[in-house]
Amino acid sequence: MVAQRKQYRPLPAAGALRLDNLILETRGLTKEFRGFTAVQGVDLKIRRGTIHALIGPNGAGKTTVFNLVTGVYPIDTGRVVLDGTDISTMPSRRRIYHGIARNFQNIRLMPHLSALENVLVGQHCRNSGLRGVLQPVNLVPRNRWREEARTALADAGLGEYERAAVGRLPYGLQKRVELVRALMARPRLLLLDEPAAGLNPRETDELRERLTVAGRKHGISMLIVEHDMNFVGALCAHVIVLNFGRRIAEGTPDQIRDDPLVREAYLGVEAAPRALERHAS
Description:
alpha/beta, 4-stranded antiparallel beta sheet, 11 helices, globular, disordered N terminus
C-alpha cells in the first residue's frame, strides 16, 4: 500500500483579517517543558515584505517561538499559518520546502566543508534530486547550482573564501556564510536568531545593509530576534516584545522605546496602572 501524502490546506480568513497580506501568523501559540510554560498564547502577525523584530529579556521565549514556527519543537496548542496555509503539524523539513529558512543562535555550519560546499547545502530544498546530493561532495563539479552559489558568495564579499574550510574562518565570516546559505533556499520568510551577536560595528552595519538589500531585491519577509536595539531600530519597521512567554507590546521602534511595560521588562521599573489597563484592553 502506498502511503498517502498529508495535504496542508489553506485556512479561511479569521474574521476581518486579510490573510493575503500576511506571510506568517501564529494563533495562541503555547509550549510547555515539564510544567514550565515557555510560550503562552502568543499571537503574531507578520506582514508580507516587511522586516519585524522579536525582542525581550533573556528567557522571554523568543527562540522557543522560532523553534515552534520552524517545527523544531511540536506545538502544544495553537497554530502556525504560513502564507495562508496551516503548517502547525508539518515536519520541519517540509516547512523548508514551503518557504521558511532560518539561522541559529549558535552557528550550525559544517566546519569540515568549504564555504562553497556549505552554501550548496542550502540549495537542497530547491534541488533535492540525486544531483543535489552529489554537488556538495564535488562529484558534479560544473553546473548552474554551483555557479549560483559561487556568485552568491562573491556578492557577499566572500569569493576569496569559497574553498576555505569554514571551521577555520573568523567568527564574523562564518556568520556571513551562514546568511548566504539561508538565502540560497530562496525563502519567502527568513527567521534570524541574533544575527548581529558577536559582530563588530563595521560587520553589524554591513549585515544591516545586506538584509535590507535582500528584502528589497528578493521580496523576503523577515522576523529577527536581536538584542542590539540600534540594529533593530535601523532595520525593522515593526517590533514585537515578549516577556515570560507572553507578548506584552508591539509597535514601531520608537513606540517600543517609550512603552512602560517594555521598560519594566528590561529595567525592572514598575509600569503605571494606566499603562497596564491599556495593554490589557
